[in-house]
């Protein structure tokens, strides 16, 4: 593929590894950790597989503010169609200074900020966090009307459980 450069790959074999394979980027090179008993064919297969996984992961991390705004507009159309003007934010952006919450909304200036920690989460969790903040543009508090709006998202409970699990694992505060 034009414009795509394959990174330098360092394969490290381990006698302690039995089945697991992992990879990480170390500067310009990718280190792939494989079991020592893998054949050359298995090594080649796993290197390609791990490079694809890293590329996919890094693609997810490259989510932009513009993509986030487009996602917000899509969620408004799907789950808040009766509030098409009221739920539209003035700005939506990823931020790196929110370590104690998943997102925040300032209804006064209609701005929404989503924590960078959410960027690596599944799409349906990102949608939930964003819809939660969009609902605050309609109902600023966490009352029954607010939760009814958030409940329009079919995976709301599942996403809340996911976030609670992440919070419990990292000792972060629970989502509100």
Automatic annotation (TrEMBL):
**What keywords would UniProt list here?**
Hydrolase
Checking InterPro entries in the record gives: UTP_pyrophosphatase-like, YgjP-like_metallopeptidase
Instruction: Say which domain of life the source belongs to.
Output: Bacteria
UniProt keyword Repeat present: no
**Protein biosynthesis as UniProt keyword:** no
According to the entry, every stretch annotated as the YgjP-like metallopeptidase domain falls at 95-163
Q: Which Pfam families match?
A: YgjP-like
What's a Gene Ontology MF term here? hydrolase activity
Please give the name of this protein: Metal-dependent hydrolase
Q: What organism is recorded for this protein?
A: Micromonospora vinacea
């Amino acid at each position: 593929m034009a414009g795509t450069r394959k990174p330098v790959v360092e394969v490290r074999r381990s006698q302690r590894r039995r089945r697991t394979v992992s990879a990480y980027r170390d500067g310009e090179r990718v280190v792939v950790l494989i079991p020592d008993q893998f054949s050359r064919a298995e090594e080649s297969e796993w290197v390609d597989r791990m490079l694809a996984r890293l590329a996919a992961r890094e693609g997810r991390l490259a989510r932009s503010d513009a993509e986030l705004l487009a996602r917000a507009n899509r969620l408004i159309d799907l789950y808040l169609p009766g509030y098409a003007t009221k739920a539209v934010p003035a700005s939506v952006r990823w931020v790196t200074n929110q370590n104690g919450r998943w997102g925040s909304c300032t209804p006064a200036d209609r701005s929404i900020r989503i924590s960078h920690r959410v960027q690596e989460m599944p799409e349906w969790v990102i949608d939930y966090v964003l819809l939660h903040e969009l609902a605050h543009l309609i109902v600023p508090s966490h009352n029954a009307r607010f939760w009814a709006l958030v409940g329009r998202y079919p995976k709301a409970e599942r996403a809340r459980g996911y976030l609670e699990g992440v919070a419990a694992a990292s000792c972060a505060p629970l989502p509100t």
